# Entry
Amino acid sequence: MRPRQPAASPLYPKIRFAFTDHPITVWAGAILLRLYFELIGLRAALAPWLTPFTKTSNNQIPAVDVLLAWWYGLALGAERFEHMTRYRRDPLLPRLLGLPRFPSPDTLRRFFQGFTYRRTTEVSEALMRLSLRTMRPILLGHTLDLDSTVFCRYGEQDGSRPGHNPIKHGRPSHHPLVAWLSERRRLLWATLRAGHAGTANGAREFLAQALTMLPPGHRIGLVRADAGFFVTAFLTALDARELPYIIVARLTPLVRKLVIHRIPEADWRLVARGIAVADMTAALPAWHGQARRFVCLRQTLTERPDASGRRLIACPGYTYRVLVTSVPFAAELVTRMYAGRADSENRIKELKEDLSLDTFCLQSFDATDAAFRTGCVLYNLLMGFRETVLPSCWFERRLRAVRDRVFLVGADLIPAARRLRVRFAVPPEERTEFLQRLHTLSEGLPIAAQLDWDLSEAHEANHASTHAPNATLPAVRLVPQRPGASP
# Structure
């Protein structure tokens, strides 16, 4: 007697649901990031600096693999330590990334809790130099943008203090300080501070440390910063290092008097509709007689009602922005040079929204600082990945676009004789480019001996896709390693 067929689902009348034993992942595109790490020799470079974190347990995960797993998790979109569980449960992802297994959230927490301030500084300095060594120099020097941001906290963690919080007033926070290389979109240096720290607190020491991160053959051509860095000690430090700078001046009563009484109306030069500029040289009492150049930008509210800047009661109808600078160019050019600093806000958004570095917080301040600084190193590594692997049109795209368009690739693993066949669910029109990226990154590396693919397969798949709806997916064959072989 024939078994009775189950009734079809009214919602899916032509679909039969079942289970599969094949390992499947949705993050197969992360193999490109693994190959890039192999290309720059990241694993070998990490080993000497992570030796103090070596465990003696038989079931331990090597410290290098823990840090690599942390970076992979951030790159794939983890926003909490607990989110690492989703990659830990993925049966195929660790094999593609060359990891024995993904660490648990508690393993990651214990890893960062092993950092002291000294270890955090030593490891982050070494890793930051490593992430910047392939960066190309700028002929006239890099533009260094200094900025600070707020990481809002919900608890009583070390260093979490009420301070300036523009969104949630009175909420405890951390107040990190960052330095960007504008043209190359790299993070030169970063550090975490208590939430009640002022913007310029420790700015001189921070600048000195950041300059030591520059690779040989690179130099700084301009320093830009907002009004939070308008303090005498910082300006003196820039002058002593002979670094050209453009810094927004705080509109204190003394600066307001200079703008109102020292600049005649005839000195304002119209450079665009509703925009005028002027400059002057003056010395504030705190500068002990040292004169500096001020560049002033004035916008007319009747012609530009949405103009940014500060309004002065003594001069209604205008907004003002005042810059102090050592750059000898024309005033209108100085204001344009400073306007490019606005892009640093987009870089901070990538740290906070794309890598979610503001959401990883531990009770120990040093542990939180270690997680933040290692995440900043990943930012530079992803910038290098984007420049090396992706077309130039990707330079303007956010990191989340790289995750959604490059790393988000489905794949399954099928045993085939003595090899393992990984099939990538890449659209037919993108298969040639995907396989070429694989071939370019792995060529000449030891891992190339474990991978076997044919670029012609993508062309055949493209041709077949125009004639058959179920064309074969492009595949990479993984050759099993012999015992004792290096990964």
Remarks:
- The mean pLDDT is 87.
- Residues 410-478 form one domain.
- The CA atoms of residues 16 and 261 lie 82 Å apart.
- DSSP finds 16 helices and 18 strands in the chain.
